[in-house]
Specification:
Layout (H helix, E strand, L loop, with lengths): L2 H10 L1 E2 L2 E2 L4 E4 L6 H27 L1 H4 L2 H22 L5 H20 L28 H27 L6 E4 H6 L16
Antiparallel strand pairs: 1-2, 3-4
Helix pairs in contact: 2-4, 2-6, 5-6
């Protein structure tokens, strides 16, 4: 048997880097639980809500953000990518990264929202401060509105940390080897011929 034929045989009998019993396939029982599905979609929704809040503050307070502009864009892209891989691949290993980024975002929101490191958005609503300009060159959002969106990031990131931690504890990566017909009953798409049907009487 040639090296190419051996490689082909090996790959036919492997799923995600492991050998599988012929006639069987790998399923993920914890992903089938309603609680796991709910947590997965809650994490995705909170990630996308976080992106929306960051972009609103970025676009609406463009002239006052200074060095935070690229940070907000990179953070938004990272959240979108994390949401995509969690949605498509149930990427449990990304949930600790989600929690870490959410903790950092929460800290930044607290600092920006309360003015812990200087002037907050709410301080800029008083006289003597110029209004923010948007990314499009016109007037941006009011300082109070920008402050409200920044403060809103705090509970949103808290919820993201909570649900990412819950999702990680649900062990989405647990695998179970089952026959093809059982996998189909569970709703998995399995390649290969369907199970034989009983002959009519």
């Amino acid at each position: 048997m040639t090296h190419k034929a051996v490689s082909a045989c090996m790959f036919r009998n492997m799923t995600h880097g492991r050998s599988v019993t012929p006639g069987h396939t790998v399923v993920y029982p914890n992903r089938e639980k309603p609680a796991s599905v709910l947590v997965k979609y809650v994490v995705i929704i909170i990630l996308l809500v976080s992106v929306a809040l960051m972009l609103i503050v970025t676009f609406g307070g463009w002239s006052k953000l200074q060095g935070l502009k690229p940070v907000n864009f990179v953070w938004s892209i990272a959240y979108v990518l994390l949401a995509y891989f969690i949605w498509r691949r149930w990427a449990r290993g990304l949930l600790p990264i989600v929690s870490t980024l959410a903790i950092l975002a929460l800290i930044m929101a607290v600092i920006a929202g309360t003015g812990a490191s200087g002037t907050s958005w709410f301080d800029r609503s008083s006289s003597g401060f110029a209004s923010a300009q948007s990314i499009f060159g016109g007037n941006g959002l009011s300082a109070d509105t920008l402050g409200a969106f920044t403060i809103l990031m705090i509970p949103v990131q808290g919820l993201l940390i909570l649900f990412a931690t819950i999702g990680f504890a649900q062990s989405w990566n647990v695998e179970l080897e089952v026959p093809h017909d059982e996998a189909r009953r569970r709703g998995y798409h399995v390649s290969g011929p369907p199970p034989p049907q009983p002959a009519p009487a």
